Every structure is written in C-alpha cells, then in structure tokens.
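Bench log, entry 3. Co-assembly request; chain sequences pasted below exactly as received.
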Amino acid sequence: MIEKRVFVSALAVLVLTMSAGFCAEQPKELTVFTAASLTGAFGEIGQIYKNETNISVVFNFDGSQVLRTQIDNGAYADVFASANTKQMNALKTGGMMNNSSVSIFTKNKISLIIPKDNPGKIQNLTDLAKPGVKIIIGTKDVPVGDYAIQIIDKLGNDSAYGPDYKKKVMDNIVSQETTVSNVVTKVALGEADVGFAYVSDVTEDLAAKVDKIEIPDKYNVVGQYPIGILKQSKCPAEGEEFINLVESEKGRAILEKYGFEPMGTAAKATSSASASSPSAARATA
Amino acid sequence: MAAGSQSARIADESKHGLFMASDQAKINYMIRLPEEGQEVTGISVRAKEIALKVGPAILLILAVAFIALPVVSLFIKSPMDATIRSLHDPVVMDALRLSLMTSSLTTSIVILMGTPVAYIHARFHYFGKEIADSLIDLPVIMPPAVAGIALLMAFGRMGILGHYLNAFGISLAFTTLAVIIAQVFVSSPFYIRQARTSFEDVDRSFESAARTLGASRTYTIFHVILPIACNGLISGAIMAFARSLGEFGATIMFAGNFQGRTQTMPLAIYTAMQGDLDVSLCLSLILVAISFLVIALVKTLTRRVYKNAGN
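Structure output for the full assembly:
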C-alpha cells in the first residue's frame, strides 16, 4: 500500500511540473529568427517593442543558414531576419515567406578582428598571407563566410595582391564556423590570430578583448540584410509592427550605434557608407 | 514488502499467543482468497489476463517503432543514386578518411594507456583510488560541449598548459592532434570500465595455478590473464571506437571545423546539412551502417564471454 501511495504522488509531481511548463506559454509572444550578427541590436529593439506593446519577443540567434534549415524542417517563427539575400530567397522560393513583406532593412560590412594582444602580429591585409597565421572564417553557407570568400577573391584578383596571395590566405584558414558568434569567440579567446567578422560584431563588451582592422571599401562587401514575415505566422500584424519598429528612426539609430551601415535614402546611402565607418582601431602592435 | 513484514510480525506474535481478531482481519484483507463456489475463471479474470499480455506488447511495439522510425527514414529519404554520387564528393571522402584514421589512432592509444590502468584498478587498492575511479568515469557523464570548453581552457593557446606549450611553438587547437585528444578524452572511460570488469572476472585460481607452476608475473599477465579477458577487452575497444567516431561537441569546439584536417564525419554532417542535404544523408547512412556493425560485433563477443565463463 505504501508503494502505491509513493507511486501516485510521484506521478502527480511529474504531471504538475510538466503542466507548469505548458502554462508558462500562455502570454502572447513574437518569435523572431535572426542572424547572429544582430544579437545586440535586436536585443535592444526587442526590449523597446516589449515596452511599447507588452508583447515579449523571443529571439533565436544563429547563422542565417542554420535558421533557414530549421524553418525548412518545421520550426515555428513569425519573423525572419537574414544576413544575406541568399538564405531569404531560398525561403521565398520555398514558399515559406510572405513575399510582399520582405524588405532590406540594414547593411553590414566585413571587418578583420584580432585578439587584443595580437599574437599573430597582424597589421594589414598583406599579413594574412604570412606563413603560420591562423585565420578563422565562416563556412561557405553562412553569410559571413560567403562574404569573406568574396573579399579574398577580390583581393586575389587585384594586382596589388595577386593570385598567390589568395592561395596563401586559404592555406592559413584553420577552421570554418557555422555562425559568426563562434568566429568572434575563438578570436576573443586568443585561439586564432585573425577572423573575418562583421563591423558590427565588435561590441563594447568585446572591445576589451579584440581589435578591428578595417578592410578598404574597394575590397569590402556590403551585405544586405532582408527581413520578412513568414506565411505560417499566427500574429502577422504584430510581426509587421516589429518590422516597422526596426525600420523606424529609433530602430535605425540603434542599428547604427551597433556598427551597421546607415540606410537613409538611396542617394545618401552610397555617400555615407564609407564616410561613417565606425571608429576602427587600426592595430598597432 | 509492507504485507511481508506485517505478516512476519503477526506470525511472530502468534507464536507468543498474542494473536488477535484484528490481526486476522488484516490477513483476510491482504490475502483475498476466492470464496467457496466462486468461479476462478470469471470473465473479468480472463480480460485481465489478456490486458496483461496486450498492454506490454503495445508498449514494446511503440518503443521499437520509436527507435526504428528515424533510422528507416534516413534510408527512405536518400535515393540510391544521390547517395552513390555523394560518395565521390570530396567532403564525404575527406570526412570518412579523417574519421576512420583518428578513431583508429584514438582506440590504439586508449588500449595502450587504458589496459594497465584497468588492471591496476582491478587488482590493487591504493590511496585515492575512489577519486581516480570517479575521474576516469567523468567524461562519460560530462556533456561533450563541456568537454570541448574544458579542453580549450587546458590546452588552448591561452590555456593552463597550452600557453607553456605555445612558448615552445607547439599549438594544439585546430590540428588533427586536437581531434585525437578530444576523442581520447571522451572515449577512454568506455574502454577502461569494460577492461576493468573483464580483469575482475578472470578467475583468480587460473592466476594462482600459473604462479604455482612457476610462471613469472609478467608471463601470467600476458599468457593467462589477457587471453581470458580478451573478449571483454575487445568489446570495450569497439565501444571506445564507436564513441570516438561519433564525437561532435568536443571536436568542433577544441579542434575546429576544417575539411580534411579536423572535419570528422559528425562535423561534416552538421555543416553539410545547412547547405547540401544529400552529402549529409550519405554520411549519416555510412555511420548508421557502422553502428549496426559495432552492435553486432559487441554482441557476438560478449556472448562468447558468458559461454567461456560457464566452463
């Protein structure tokens, strides 16, 4: 008889703990799948959104290709923000997006990052080809990796660097990460000598551990970030409110603060792109 | 158990002549014997019998189906021609070659280092043995991601040991050696635990007989104990091999992800899945086939152990 009582009470405790988990999902929330490079900026925008509408935003920050794969395989999301148009287009072709809601909301450029103490003595782009240098980039599917390969290609095609340069740089790559956050972490840990990340990735907290080396505009790539609402979304109106907030003056200011390229009007965009590069600290070892 | 201890108490008390009517009532309550004339094979009893057989049967079918479904889905979702085509993809070939090479090296290292450790733990007792034992078992319980970070903190460029090695120009992270280190870390307990059990199961009388016949300690170990424990050792080695083949978290964190150098099969599957599903499926099928092989081998070997032990 005693065993039966123990058994029934244990079962009751189990059921109660499980139902507690379900009940917690009652309040309405917006699920936003976002490229990892937007972690800081969207975190802030999400907070403002919550203060204005009292709906909490649940973020999933990861490589854009990882998020696309998850959505393809059935993950639920209301809004998707990608770091390149390739992943967004893949979802659009697959019929997952509400195509009319998709728009480019910001741009980002690539930057080299080095650990604060600069163990590889990297000071400029030519140093990337030095033998023994450890470079970390993204995989070819993750936007930051795709952009990095484009930049290396551009450098290889330029007579100032040459095709030999490209081969030496590719030989120096030691790891390909599936999201830019891992690139930044490994460089901040000092494991690698240099990494290809976004200009926006060197946040205030990281500024103590990493330095940036600017890539001149003629070699750099301007990544376009599209955002859109998914067809499966149960709260498309709230999703649209969120996108409006991102594209508003407030949202733009936050994105610029984190290092993203200001959008402005088309005419302003091209001229302000190079002028307003954030304070890039040239590494002087 | 409650019924047992109560009836034992009642039995004790009845011996001392303190058997009371209330105790008799308790026994009647606990043991429901069929009354005179009651049909023992009533419909409710038959229904209970059937339910007792069908219930567990359904559970069994559900459990097996739950495990079988994902495996079968792998095969259904990868058409034969796409799989054969993927076999020639350099990503697949590099990952396969790297995985087999590193896992074989890992298993050899684990056997060489682990056998003496297992023997010592099986036969001798020393101060701090419990702690050493728990430490050796730790990588089994530890989540692989934790193992990855831990290895980085120890052997990475800024690591506790790593920054001394770096001064000598030795860098471990992002090399194939790092892959092997990560695999040895997570798979050695599998071999050591199995080896220790095998050594403990060797009948001491064989050992004593050999010693009394004049064999030296070394000779006994190599020619008496090891052959008897052999099957268990081999199955332990196979488990370690399988574990090292599947290692993902520690590898991707400590060794990184680079095709041909550190991108083992699980890493290749994860990376490829984000771009080219066919390559991913092909590698998965290969790993499933290897897993089945491992299970079959371990089963045959351990069965022979029981057969031998019976003699």
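The beta strands of chain A are 29-35, 56-62, 79-81, 103-115, 135-138, 173-177, 194-198, 210-213, 222-229. Chain A touches chain B through 26 residues (CB under 8 Å).
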